[in-house]
Amino acid sequence: MLEFKLSIKNLLGAKLRTFLNLFVLSISFVVIILLNSLMDGWDAQAKKDSVEWEYGNGHLLNENYDPLDSFSILDGHGQIPNNINNLTPILVHQATIYPDGRMMSIKINGIPKDQKAIKIPTTKISANPSKFPALIGKRMAESANISIGDEVLIRWRDKNGTFDANRITVIDIFDSNVPTIDAGQIWMSLDNLWEMTGFNNEATFFIANDLYQHSKISGWKFKSKETLLKVITDLVDAKKSQQAIVYILLLGIALLAIFDTQVLSIFRRQKEIGTLIALGMTRKRVVKLFTIEGSLYSFFALLFGSIYGLPLFYFLAVEGFPVPPADQKVGIAMSDFIYPLYGLKLIFGTVLLVIISSTIVSFLPARKISKMNPVLALKGKLQ
Amino acid sequence: MKYTFMKNLLFFLFTITSTSLFSQNSSSNEALEVLKKVDKNMFSETQIVTSEMIVYGKRKSRTIRSKGYSEGEFKNFTEYIYPDREKGTKMLKLDDRLWIYSPSTDRIIQLSGHLLRQSVMGSDLSYEDMMEERKLSEIYFCNILSEEVYKDRPVWKMELIAKNDNVSYFRRIVLIDKLQFVPLKSELYAKSGELLKKTVFSEIKKIEGKWYPTKMNYKDVLKDGKGTDFLILDVVFNKKIPDAYFLKSSLKK
Fold it and tell me: Which residues of chain A are under the pLDDT cut of 50?
């Protein structure tokens, strides 16, 4: 207790030096929590959006279909197996649209009008009297310059390779953060697509709902929600590693400042150390005193960081962190604003990291005290 | 009286129907003969063609010169020789497969799926269009719709309807020169009846005994623009082409 009281007294006595140390350390605290919470927030949001708009509880894909290989669309479909439940069939077909006389290659996704597996607003298709009603996302609308109500000429090949063409009516533009269901794609009723292509009762993949229990189906392969989401996890982890460099540098600077302060203290306070030992304090207790002094920087930094950090964290949690439009076009789910996610694991992990590392860098120079000669220390001679 | 009337009516109907059927049949036969003559003009066992493709853009046009070697309906090798940007680009078509070699990347890529629907060097022709080389008389039922005059030439206006399901364009309307048996204009329709592409043939010349159009304008009517001109600078028919041209290894040579 005595060591603790002395440490606080010494720190408060050092004034500016203490303030500078804890200020730098508090920045490390805030930056570590902020960067990681933004990444965690993006991760959680991207996963939630991807599940709601694209993955559902997993995909059952035709064995010849690879979503990352557009060559596989041609042959990657098959008859819908009998007796399947809790699966929503999607048929993918390639086509060309001609908005304002421009030519654009696109993918048509046929989806049942009454589906509830993903958030594509397919119920609007049922309510529309047009012959070929279609839904598109905001990215597609922007790139093709299409608005609700526009009729766009579409050309496709049927199952035999014969060209066909007609006009689709864009009945709604949905706002989704998931670009993989939006850019270069249109959504139509599955019945319409079957009629257009002649691929009756066929699907390219299925979206599973929460009740789906997978059992092997010949000709189809299942990818669970976790497998599909791994892309996002891997990307966020990679981004976290890149950001770690920033806060490792900041933390390194702060710890170096504490280390330097400790070395200077031990050098300048030799007489004090000698006096304490002469008065009966063991060397071990003196080492403890200096180590506590060093680690108290992190406690004070935590308190100081809270003064400006908490309002900042609260502000970002409410308002969100704006994402520049260019960054939203990277091809992964990302909304206009990222809302940071402050988890207990993150906060306690950061606190522990800073306290433990500052304690270690405080202890390292203090070890020298245990080898000091108290008589020479009292005289203030260099050792 | 009533019996005689019925007999006369039946005879009349029979005469009308049989005459109509006979004339339709004879029209189809005549159309088929015409189409075969057209195919004879347009196709040969081998062809070596030096041509220029003029792609009209919104602001300026581009000219691309190439030399093509083809054998039958399923083998075609094309090398681009002008401009410098495209020089050395080669295309090889074997059956329904198409490979492209680009000297800038030194890579051969096979085109399939939606890539075949992309335009060739910004033109109105897609790779699929370039690959389509089957004889019209083999894949279409034909019928003469009328006899007209087109650009001062007497022509047959013919309607071609696909015989099978695996034909790219379900219906074509073709104007065929009655004297030279070459198409002068062709309109390609989708199954729904939507007009998709239009081709105008001109500058017909007699080359090695065949009447052959040396200028063609392809127009994707769904797209804006003037279309793409295709000029034949030189053509040689039925000259033996070494098999090495139709090997994938020829692309990198």
Answer: none
Does pTM top 0.95 for this prediction? no
Rounded Cα distance, B243 and A355, in Å: 77
Where residue A179 falls (left for φ over 0; alpha for ψ -120 to 50; beta otherwise) is alpha
- Asked if A162 lies within 8 A of B220 by C-beta distance, the reply is no
For residue B207, is pLDDT > 80? Answer: yes
Query: Is residue A295 a contact partner of residue A255, using CB atoms and an 8 Å limit?
Result: no
Packing angle of the helix pair A16-50, A225-268 (nearest 10 deg)? 180
Q: Is residue B48 part of a domain?
A: no
The pLDDT score that the predictor gives to residue A144 is 92
Q: How far is B188 from chain A (nearest CA, A)?
A: 10
Give me the pLDDT at residue A374, please. Answer: 78
Chain A residues touching B170 at Cβ < 8 A: 162-164
Query: DSSP characters for A357-373?
Result: HHHHHHHHHHGGGGG--
**Mean pLDDT along residues B177-204:** 94
CATH of the domain at B139: 2.50.20.10
Cα–Cα distance measured from residue B83 to residue A200, given in angstroms and rounded to the nearest whole number = 47
CB A98 within 8 A of CB B223: yes
Residue A124, SS3 per DSSP: helix
Looking at the domain assignment, is residue B127 inside a domain? Answer: no
Q: Is residue B171 part of a domain?
A: yes
Q: What are the tens digits of pLDDT across the range B60-116?
A: 888 999 999 999 878 889 999 989 888 999 999 888 788 999 988 889 988 766 667
What is the domain range of residue B151? 11-42+134-235
**Integer Cα distance of B1 and B37 in angstroms:** 54
B231 CB-near residues (< 8 Å, 6+ apart): B51, B52, B53, B54, B214, B215
Query: So what's the pLDDT on residue B26?
Result: 58
CB contact under 8 Å between B196 and A163, yes or no, is yes
Contact (CB<8Å) A162/B224: no
Residue B107 belongs to some domain of the structure? no
The answer to whether A366 touches A287, Cβ cutoff 8 Å, is: yes
The number of domains in chain B is 1
Reported as a pLDDT band with limits 50, 70 and 90, residue B3 is low
d(CA B90, CA B110): 12
